[in-house]
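Q: How would the structure tokens look for this protein?
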Amino acid sequence: MSASAGAFVVRVAGPDDVPALHELWTGEPDRRDWSPAASPDGLLPELDVLAAENRVWGAFRRGRPVAMAAAGELDGAMWLSVLGVARDCRGRGLSRSLLASVLGHGAFACYPALVAFVRPQRGGFLDHVGFVRLDAGQIDPGARNIAARYRLEPWARRL
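A: Here is the predicted structure in token form.
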């Protein structure tokens, strides 16, 4: 069996999975391009908190995470903190599967929307999966400050 073969299991990642998720994040050379996370320094502590709240999802192969998504809360909406897939596992629908889990959680928790902030060149995937790009006037001041500070575009998908 090749390194890229095998079945994937998408599930909520618990606190016991956090060390392996940290390894996944720090081991990917293009992690800064993962949507929407822009800062490797800020994500690791956030993963710890969100995993304890059942707000981190992983795609696992042979018990090891190969992709992850995490969602916090910002201005009353659910905020996509990270969505990324290991380079050798891309093109298999893992981002869509993880996003479906995040959206399902958000709908169950009665959030009005899932908000994401991405680099300008990274909005294509979000557009393809039903997000719309927001103008600065359409977002709350807290979100507007984040977008401006990190030069990110705000996107949202109604839940």
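The CA atoms of residues 64 and 149 lie 34 Å apart.

The first strand starts at residue 9 and ends at 12.

Upvote if useful.
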